[in-house]
């Protein structure tokens, strides 16, 4: 006798049999979006319970895992390079905006900004450690060298004039104690440099000093020349007070040599110049005639 299947009764392997499969293995074709959300939540909870499974160790023997690790490292490097380029571009844009703002600001705004920068700089330098200070000075020196290598002759001239003006203004506002301490430091630095320099460096230094001295003498006024002579005389007297006999003798020899050179240069510049041999013979003839 054949038993008829009731209408509405699910057959074997139909929907009822697929429900436990959906719970065991989340297949998109079997479950809807709400079930997928539940499965993801279950996975996150299992990972939070077992955090070791979140970042499994890479098996070095497996070539596929090694390639994946290399690709991941390459992606990280590429991302870092992109971030650096974006950061560099943003810094350039910020610098351009800052230059535009400074070009359009008034004198009062500029003074206010510079005063604020000075205060912030002093506070930042007071907080920094010795290592940070050395790193900052190294960075500043490197930046200055790079800027001077790329500057033109006109820019170098403007920079030197600005530096001289800033130094004069700084020295004019300096207190007496700070000025004396600065002079002592400069003298100590100069003595150390002179003690450690080679013969070639000494020759170059003397030539540069001579050129600089001649240029300064050409530009000085009579009042400046009188002040210079007075300073030289005071410096010479102070030196002779503490100098030894050998140092005094060396100074006299240098003075005689300098006077002879100055006389020779003055004779070269005059119109009635005659060679030293002719001058010597004429002098000897005058002496012999006076003896007779």
Overall strand count = 0
Order of helices and strands: HHHHHHHHHHH
Largest beta-sheet characterization: none
Poorly predicted spans: 14-36, 51-56
Summing up helix and strand content along with how strands pair, one would put the structural category as mainly alpha
Output mean pLDDT: 78
Number of continuous helical runs: 11
Shape descriptor reads elongated
Helix content: over 70%
Proportion of strand residues: under 5%
Q: Which radius of gyration do the C-alpha atoms yield? A: 44 Å
Q: What does the oligomeric state look like here?
A: single chain
Distance, first to last CA: 179 Å
Region (Disordered): 1-66, 80-160, 173-292
Biased composition (Acidic residues): 54-64
Biased composition (Basic and acidic residues): 91-108, 120-160, 179-204, 212-235, 243-254
Summary tags:
292 residues; mainly alpha; 11 helices
Any overview of this molecule?
The protein has 292 residues and is mainly alpha-helical. It has a domain at 222-263. 80% of the residues lie in helices and 0% in strands. The protein has helices at 15-24, 33-49, 63-104, 107-127, 130-150, 153-172, 176-196, 199-219, 222-242, 245-269, 276-291. Mean pLDDT is 78; it is low at 14-36 and 51-56. Residues 1-66, 80-160, 173-292 are annotated as: Disordered. Residues 91-108, 120-160, 179-204, 212-235, 243-254 have a biased composition (Basic and acidic residues). Residues 54-64 have a biased composition (Acidic residues).
